[in-house]
TrEMBL record:
<protein>
    <recommendedName>
        <fullName>histidine kinase</fullName>
    </recommendedName>
</protein>
Amino acid sequence: SAPPPKYRIGFSQCTNGDAWRQAMLAGMKKELSFYPEVSFTIKDARYNSALQEQQIKELLRQGIDLLIVSANEAEPVTPIVEEVYNRGIPVVILDRRTTSKLYTAYVGGNNVEVGRTAGNYAASLLKQRGQVLEVLGAPGSSPAVDRHRGFGQALAAYPGVQLVAQVNSNWERPSVLARLPAVLRAHPEVDLIFAHNDRLALGAYQVCKQLGRQNQVKIVGVDGLPGMRGGIQLVQDGVITATLLYSPGGEEAIRTALKILRRQPYDKENILGTMVIDSTNALTMKLQTEKLGSQQQDIQRQQQLLQQQRDTYASQQTVLYVLAAA
Ligand code: FRU
């Protein structure tokens, strides 16, 4: 029978340096293991939009059949992604969007919804009265823009809850440690901080602790990763009050890519749901993700076993050929 067609997938990643991105990549690799005919190249733009543009050009030069991209900043990365699309190469946007409608499919959360859910949860935690501070993701990246918009939309329904200050970040904790103390000192009445991811939320907690305010200020993050330093654990340890689940979507991205490449029906918008993780469900979430993790390991072990059997079979075939030729 004819061998399955070989596909080359290029993945332009805005950064690969945090646990959330690593979970995304692990999900992709797991899913890719079901498609041995696919070759996969990842390029890490290390939060640099100009570098990301270069790397996408490199992928084009090397030759790809499909591009998966998480745009570091929406505006600067848009033209090159449009160019890829206009050349007839399908584009799957994963998590961070461009500003353009020229893409084949999107996989990721609805970040306006994430922000809105955070806003409604915050208002109910504060019994609809209090002061709120927001720590945003990097300016110009679509999840930061959308989370902020959704958060504001939700809070607009609660006149007793005021957004009194905003702090920008580069998505990483050190930027919060540097910028938050002055802003928090200027606002001694803050009751709650909404941070656009759990790394920022942990930074916010550390600043509150420095200022002796960790018992007054409730913190809500985003991501809800399992694992030692993940958001679920932060909730369980009482470091943050809640986190909004935001799935990395690696498996879904590869599955969508393969549907597109094999010319099977696919959805253009593949929205991964969100939910509040707080003290009422953190343990359940933790147990479930641990169980998923161990099932994952079982699948890997089975795949290894299969591969060993294939290898044994192949070497026995060689022996047969040699014998037959003799
Ligand atoms: C990981 C991350 C997540 C955040 C997402 C937004 O690189 O910063 O923490 O939810 O990117 O794109």
